[in-house]
Amino acid sequence: MGHRIAVTINGQRYEAEVEPRLLLVHFIREVAGLTGTHIGCDTTSCGACTVILNGKPIKSCTMFAVQADGCEIRTVEGLAQNGELHPIQKAFWECHGLQCGYCTPGMLMAGVALLERNPNPTEEEVRRAISGNLCRCTGYQNIVKSILRAAEMMREGAGVASGSPVGSGSPAQ
Amino acid sequence: MIPAAFEYVAPRSVAEAVALLRQHSYDAKVIAGGQSLIPMMRFRMAQPRVLVDIGRIPGLDYLREEDGFLRIGALVRHATMEHSPLIQERYPLLAATARVVADPLVRNLGTVAGSLVHADPAGDWAAALMAARAQVVAAGPDGERVIGIDDFLVDTFTTALEPDELVVEVRVPIPGPRTGGDYQKIERKVGDFATAAVAVQVTLDEAGRCQQAGIGLCAVGPITLRATAAEEALVGQPLDEATIRKAAALAAEAAQPTSDLRGSAEYKRDMVRVLTLRALRNAAA
Lengths: 173, 285
Description:
heterodimer, A: 5-stranded mixed beta sheet, B: alpha+beta, Uridine Diphospho-n-acetylenolpyruvylglucosamine Reductase, domain 2, Uridine Diphospho-n-acetylenolpyruvylglucosamine Reductase, domain 3, Enolase-like, domain 1, 3 domains
């Protein structure tokens, strides 16, 4: 039996009739067509499917789409604004925060969620925040550097008037 | 790995949820955070015909002290415990546990009550709540009943809940002054089940002697274990090194570990001793 649900992803509303067993990650990829969110492990282990749901990073492979009915979701596609990369994307670029790129969307979303809650994290706090995200290239050193660099860039950006550095989504907490 | 098909219902009240559980009995399964249930459904180890989503019931996400208890509503997430100033200031055992449950992403969805109801012997909360002598409040067709945690946890993945009962709250007695606690866990990596873990809560009297002690053992038996002899060895004693060492040895004796990929039974038993030592030293400090 289908359930009619409505989910807002990156500010856009998606409505669909879904089977209850449809996982949120499949809704995002196949119904909304946003394939930036990856499926890595299928076992709640890797965090490649991390999205921000109502301000908090979660594993979208471990939630049914029906549970997300009425929720606000942000995915990697929502980071860049008006063709300009989000500071965290620039920082990953600058600090070589990715190798194969498979874990990157999840790392970016976990990183953004951390920086919105804590604009000035310690290295230890960054490591803790991404401890649910696996990088199969083991590129963690540069991922941590990238998130710390993004924090710097976002703090600098917050000081000037030109636009919000934290994207357009719902506030954390 | 796609779960088997099921019917989905999202009741808006506890009474409605209980009525649904009464109607569907063993065919139904309650989902809150779903961080254990969804993986089990994906592996088809669980194939409920009806999924009762309590996530939309208002008023079940409270976390507050009242009438002598810390009251944890059924929808309180691990992350809520982790970030709560109340927990950080007054409940060192629960704070230490919340930091190491699964990983930060899972902690944003999974619930304390759900973890307890899942009754996985490797569940962190069960051991911590056993050490804290928690109680479980279950709502059923005839109203609510309160179940002590030792009676609640019956066997592997088995609790004292009836099929038409829903856990609405977990209660922890507010600890007296001079209470310390800690949770010590060994895991291969963040997010893996514990190789072994030990939860400790101790309350001292004014003379510095142990008045009350709770020790719960995680992942070293078919069920969460209480290290009763170790607790008894602490009560009435000052928490000096000799007493702590004796209790740690008794806790290791209480463990019933089995050998698996995470370690040999012998190793895990010795880790119970080491973790109990560390937890008691921290709790007494």
